[in-house]
Amino acid sequence: MNYPKIILKKGKEISLKRKHHWVFSGAIFQKPEHLENGELVSVYSSREEFLGIGHFSHGSIMVRIISFENREIDQEFWNVKIQSAYVLRQSLGLTDNQETNVYRLVHGEGDLLPGLIVDFYNGTAVIQAHHVGMHAHIKEIAQAIHHTYGNKLAGVFDKSAETLPKNLGISSNEWIIGEPITDLVKEYGATYKIDWEKGQKTGFFIDQRENRKLLASYSFGKKVLNTFCYSGGFSVLALKEGAKEVHSVDISPKAIELTEENVALNPEIEGKHESKVADVVKYIREIGDDYDIIVLDPPAFAKNMKARHNAVQAYKRLNAEALKKIKPGGILFTFSCSQVVDKALFAHTITAAALESGRNIKILHQVTQPADHPVNIYHTETEYLKGLVLFVE
Question: N vs C: which end of the chain shows fewer Cβ within 10 Å?
C-alpha cells in the first residue's frame, strides 16, 4: 500500500513480529520528515520486511498498528473488524440478551484496534476515539457498526471530544447516525439510565458488570457501603438482590443524582438506600463498624509510571481504613483500574494494608474485567482492571 514508510532500527522488529501494537520512538531508524499526527504509515524492518500499518503520532508511542497485513484501510477493513468484534460478543451471549443489553463492542488493542472504544447501550453505539488517527475514520467505523447491526441499531454517538487533544478543535460530541430510542438499559435485570453525552467514559462503567453480579450474590440481608459509586451500579444490584441497606458515596453531586435516579428506576427494591456527596478518602475515616460489605472502586490513582508510587500509598491508606472499620465477618470488594499498577503490585499493596489493619484476612476471589473487555495475549497492557474480594475476621 502507498502509505508513508517508517523503517525500524535493527532488532526492533521483534515486538511487532510478536503482534504487539505499539512502536516506540526509540525504535525508529528512519521516517519521512513531515508526518502529521494520525497519518497512516507502513512500518518495515531494517531488512525491508513489511511489519504493519498504523497511525503515526509525535510522542513516545509513535505508531499504533491497526493491521499486520499489507492491505488498504478502506470501508471493507472496518466492516470486517467490527463484525469480528460483534461475533465475539455474540459468542458470549451478549448481543441478544433480554436481561443485559449493555456491553463493550470494541476494546482497543483487545480487539486489535488501538485507540478505539465502542460501547453498545440497548440500540445506541457510543464511540470514543483515544487517538486522532482513529478519529479520522469515525464515519467509516459508524458505517461498519450499522453494517453489522442493521435495524438493531438506533444511532451512533461520537463522544471523542473528552479523549482527544484539545488543540484538534473537536470541542463537542455529535450523532453520526440516527438518534437514540431510549437511554435506559438492563444489566442482570436491573434498570439504569445512561448519560452518554455528559457522563463519565461512555456513560457507564461496563467493565464492572460481573463484579457487580458477584457483589449481589453476597448482599442479601446485608448493610453495604458503596464508595466512589458514580451512577450506583453496585448499589442498585445489591439492593435488587435483597440488601437490607445500602449507602452510596461520591464526591460528585451529579454522580449522586444519577445513583438516586437509578435506584428509583427499580421499584421492586425494598431495602433502604441513602446517598451522600463526600470525599471518600476523608469520609471512610469517620464511618462506623457496622458495614457487612464495603466496596472500594476508586478512579485510576495513577495514569503514568511517575504517579505510581503515590498511587500505591493512596490505595494502601484507603484499604487500611476500610479493613479497620469493616464489621467482623465482613467482605471487602477492592479494585484498581490503574494500568501501571499490575496485579502483583496491587496484591502486595493490599497485603500491606491488611498488615496495618491487624485483622485476619482471606482472599475469596481475584477478579478482573469481563470477557467483552478481552485481553490481547500479545498486548498485555489491555489488562487493566484488577480486584480482590476479602473476608475480614
Answer: C
Q: Cβ distance 37 to 57 under 8 Å?
A: yes
Active site residue 229: no
Long-range contacts of 350-354 (CB under 8 A, 24+ apart): 350/315, 350/316, 350/319, 350/388, 350/390, 352/316, 353/315, 353/316, 353/317, 353/318, 353/319, 353/320, 353/323, 354/319, 354/320, 354/323, 354/390
Mean pLDDT of the chain: 95
**The three three-digit cell numbers of residue 82, written as one number:** 467490527
Write out the three cell numbers for 306.
511517575
In whole angstroms, what is the distance from residue 224 CA to residue 243 CA? 7
Q: How far apart are CA 381 and CA 383, in angstroms?
A: 5
Q: Angle at which helices 75-91 and 138-149 pack, to 10 degrees?
A: 50
Whether CATH 3.30.750.80 fits 75-185? yes
- Report the CATH architecture of 5-67: Roll (2.30)
| Bridge-based pairing state of the strands 223-227 and 293-296 | parallel
Ramachandran class of 17: left when φ > 0, alpha when ψ lies in -120 to 50, beta otherwise? alpha
205-392, CATH topology level: Rossmann fold (3.40.50)
* This prediction's pTM: 0.94
Please give the grid coordinates belonging to residue 66. Answer: 491497526
From residue 171, give the alpha-carbon distance in Å to each of 37, 138, 156, 165, 180. Answer: 18, 15, 18, 10, 21
> Could you say which of 16, 112, 142, 337 is catalytic?
337
Looking up cell 463537542 gives 172
Task: Give the pLDDT of residue 133.
Answer: 95
